[in-house]
Every structure is written in C-alpha cells, then in structure tokens.
Amino acid sequence: MSSAERGSHHQVVAVLLSLVHCVQCMARSQLAPNQFMRKFCIYIPNQTDRLEMPSSVTLSMFVKMANYTILFLFSLIFLSSSHASVQDFCVADLIGPDSPAGYFCKNPAKVTVSDFVYSGLAKAGNTTNIIQAAVTPAFVAQFPGVNGLGLSLARLDLAPGGVIPFHTHPGASEVLIVLRGYITAGFVSSANSVYVKTLKKGDVMVFPQGLLHFQVNAAKIHAKAIVSFSSASPGLQILDFALFANDLPSSLVGKTTFLDPAQIKKLKGVLGGTG
Ligand SMILES: *[C@@H]1O[C@H](CO)[C@@H](O)[C@H](O)[C@H]1NC(C)=O
Ligand SMILES: *[C@@H]1O[C@H](CO)[C@@H](O)[C@H](O)[C@H]1NC(C)=O
Ligand SMILES: *[C@@H]1O[C@H](CO)[C@@H](O)[C@H](O)[C@H]1NC(C)=O
C-alpha cells in the first residue's frame, strides 16, 4: 500500500468514526438532527432554496439526503483541521530504503520549499556518448517532493543523430512533449503492432505502461523534450543494455535472440558487455 493509499484509508476510517460520534451525540441530545446541527455545528441553508430536483426525487428524500450530506461535510471539517499536516505530502527521506510503496516520509517539520522545487532540468544533458542523447531524470531520487504523488518527469536531449534506444518503464506510463526540433517516437504493443510518428515542437505523445518504445532525433538540429511519468519511480530498462551490456553469456544471447555470434560480439564490445 502506498503512503497516499494509507492516508486515504485513514481518512475514510476517521470520517466514519466522527460520523458515528456525531450521530451518538445527536441521539443523546434529543434534538432533531437539524436543530442539533444548527445549535452545535454549522449554519444550514434553507433546503428549499434554489433546488433543482429530478421529478422522481421527492422532497422528503431530498431532506434526508441533505441531512446526511451535512453530517458528512461536518465530519470532513473535523478531519481537515486535525489531520491536514500529515496527509498533505510525504517528502522522501532519501536516507531510508526505497520500496514499492515509496520512501519513508521526511519529518514534516524539516520540509522546506526546496523539497518541492527541482532545477536540474534547466540544463541540457551531456549528449557526448554512444547514443548521442541524454535523459535527465527528476524521479523521486533526484526530486524528493514527488514521493507518493504518483508522478515524476525527465528531460530528453537528442543531438543530431541521437537516439533513446528501445526501452521500457516497468512502473509507469509516459507522456512526451516536444519543446524543440523533431523527434520520431514510437512504441510496440503486446500484439506487436507498431505506433510511430515524427513529432514536432508542441506535439505530445503517450506511451502506455510497460511497452517498449524509443525516440530518435529526426532532424539535423538538437531536439529537446520533457517527459512525464505516472510514477515517482518509473524505472528504466534499455533493451540493448539488457542484452549486450552485462555478462549474459553470448551463447545464451544468441539462443534467445536468434542473432548471429559476430553481431553479438560487436554489440558487447560497443556496450561494454562480457561473456
Ligand atoms: C429560510 O427561509 C425563510 C423564508 O425565506 C426565512 O424566513 C428563514 O429565516 C430561512 N431560514 C434560514 C435558516 O435561513
Ligand atoms: C432531516 O431534517 C428534517 C427537518 O429538520 C427532519 O424532519 C428529518 O427527520 C431529518 N431526517 C433525517 C433522516 O435525519
Ligand atoms: C560530456 O561527456 C564527455 C564524455 O564523458 C566528456 O568528455 C565531456 O567533458 C562532457 N562534457 C561536459 C560539458 O561535461
């Protein structure tokens, strides 16, 4: 269970408890619910003011609904004053371990605005590398404020000829917006259908969770994009690196990919794999 889910479960339990409490007080008071609310709780507007009811809803049904709604709102008012500080956020305490539910929360007293601001995407990543491209992440590890919020982002820079090779984010869907240049982007579905398009500045494309996808610079100028993820820790697995940048024996790579040994040797050499 993520910290956000835990928070909302606590909230539901607290709503129910304060509802029960309110109803008990009301029963003991021997006042009609509306009188009780007026006396002890909140102003209740005239229920007949500006009502637009479907004809099937009778006035008495509405009055009942209104009473319950007011009770419910009343409970929420209780809640929002007593629990606000622990439920608003859970800034990552990066000293502790990461887990599927995210990091532990930093002590709220020590949280500052800089936990919610990240300037690391202002600068272009270094594209002097084999892929002539750079991914600059603003995931929870770089940007602790996104912990538990189910989102994060990254900056893509592609020099002319640059490519973000086939990869997948096991934990998130992705949306990409092109800020400069032209990018040919695509993904392959589980049914092996290909969805590919050359995007220009301002275009947005979405990549469903877990599917293999890529981005290639489609022009002779530097291309820039911002991508956003539906997780604070989307994860990243690059297909070629998984195959050729480790010590998976070449014989097994050949067996499982049907590539010939010379090609495997070459790619292992380029990407730093052994075996
Ligand atoms: C409800 O409306 C009536 C008539 O407009 C008014 O006299 C009365 O004071 C109102 N009651 C409340 C609680 O606003
Ligand atoms: C709702 O309020 C009305 C008016 O005060 C009251 O007559 C009625 O019994 C209440 N209904 C419930 C379900 O509390
Ligand atoms: C970019 O990376 C290359 C290769 O690692 C390095 O030689 C170069 O100094 C870096 N450039 C900058 C501006 O950091």
Automatic annotation (TrEMBL):
Disulfide links within the chain: 90-105
Q: Which residues form the Cupin type-1 domain?
A: 119-265
Where can this protein be found? Secreted, Cell wall; Secreted, Extracellular space, Apoplast
Q: Does the keyword Metal-binding apply?
A: yes
Q: Which UniProt keywords apply?
A: Apoplast, Auxin signaling pathway, Cell wall, Disulfide bond, Glycoprotein, Manganese, Metal-binding, Receptor, Secreted, Signal
On whether Disulfide bond is a keyword of this UniProt record, the answer is yes
Query: What is a biological process (GO) this protein takes part in?
Result: auxin-activated signaling pathway
Annotated Mn(2+) binding sites: 167, 169, 174, 213
Highest taxon, organism lineage: Eukaryota
Range of residues in the leader sequence: 1-25
> Which InterPro entries does this one have?
Cupin_1, Germin, Germin_Mn-BS, RmlC-like_jellyroll, RmlC_Cupin_sf
Q: Per UniProt, where does oxalate bind?
A: 169, 174
- GO cellular component annotations of the record: apoplast
Show the GO MF annotations: manganese ion binding
- Protein family: Belongs to the germin family.
Q: What does this protein do?
A: Probable receptor for the plant growth-promoting hormone auxin.
**Name this protein carries in UniProt:** Germin-like protein
UniProt source species: Rosa chinensis
